[in-house]
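Hi Q.,

Before the meeting this afternoon, I wanted you to have the calcium ion prediction in hand. No need to reply - just skim if you have a minute. The sequence and ligand are here:
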Amino acid sequence: MITTPKHLLVAGGFAIAGLLGPVMAEESAAARAEYPGGFTRPPSEGKNYDTWKGAKGPDVGKTKVDPKRLPSRVDNSKRPEFPPVYKQRWGACGQFASVASIFTYEMNVLNGNKADSDENRFPAHFSWNMMNRAENKGSEAYHGWEVAKRIGIPTAKSYGGVRLNKIGVWPNGYDIWREAMEYRVSGYRYTPANTVAQLNEARGWMFDRNQPAKKTPGGIMALDGRMGELKKVTVTIPDGKHEAGKDIWTRWGPSGYGHGITCVGYDDQVGYDVNGDGKITNDIDTNNDGKVTLADWERGAYIVVNSWGEKWSKDGRIYLLYSAMIDPTWKRGNYLGRAEVTRYLPSQTLKLKLSCNDRSDLRMTIGIAGDKNAKSAEHEITPEAFNGWPLFGRGGNGGHVPIAGPEDDTPIEVGIDLTPLLKKLGPDKDEKGKLFLQLSRADGSKVDGELHEAAVRLYDPNGKFVRESAMKIKTGNFGESPLQVNTVIRHLGQK
Ligand SMILES: [Ca+2]
Ligand SMILES: [Ca+2]
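Predicted structure with the ligand bound:
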């Protein structure tokens, strides 16, 4: 996930922490969710932040894992719901894995679609440009899943492709933002894969999510590999052996930085004679620690799709020995991340056309009151994208650039979901209330901007557009003085 020199230092720090920390596998530990570090969820939300809370499916460890029914090979990248092997541009690997590959696959499984056109594919760059500071900066998988939770992800068709040709561009067009609201992540989880029990849970997830009765295709997962000196750990399966000619990573690169990749399946028969004793074994203590554990296994491998193009390693894919993920020097590489997706329809939205010369120092508050004559709001929201992404903290934001993107002063049209705000109000007798929109700037910043247009849009329960009510704007300028725009809003307290 990391590409810039600054982050080489960070990655090195993780490696050292890993060496010192007790990352020894517990041989019999059961499958469980875990938050091993800042790479598995936004640190700003604190230690009690449950990233699976909004998900409907059973949490890790709550399903029965029965390895006997699992086939010896699952490759979900061959399923029609999986998109092509991509070739990433810039340091967007984390989003190619978490959104362009995993989110796309999971959304197509949910919708019964094939990933054969941009209508059914999702872009890497929409979420990337929410956190990369409008620079070529690496991201975590959770950045994409959090953007999908809080804003949604537009299709690649309306976005203009899976990747764009310029860094830091935010979409201009209400319909793109409105479409994004439909496609969401409901929850995500990281799990260690350090024991046979944990491996079996992951294999079961990839086969049928450990829910055989549901008949749902299996899931795929995010991985974070260490990518330095890969030649030292890459071997080719010899002639005459299962999957001869294919490449295997026998362990993570001995040095280097992290890279977001996608685990699409597994093959229990793929193996390599790592210790050179002439045999491929799972029952010999190959690492000489006095016991036989998953770390000693020479047979069995995950199937990984990399976003370095379909010609990389013959077919864009590579095997990764199960045992490679037990690596105390690369803590990130010990975990698999999964996401649950959902469809969602807003009932009311805000459509804004605005310009602003620094989108990360823009501050926007939207409030609601149940009385149409109210002087102040009873409930407020502060949309992440229009408040400098406080969720991501030091992990990133959209950059100190104009709202449209670097060196682009034109106003853009965006959409913001009002449904969660309206739900905070109880039922109202006359179904009328007041909406308060405030635009201002971060303390100490010099940001200026202008609100050109604002409107509230109403949708029926099927997501069909009903009506738009424009808000009156006298002068739309904001900066040194905040801008306040209010309007009476109808149809409060919808179910
Ligand atoms: Ca051997
Ligand atoms: Ca051993």
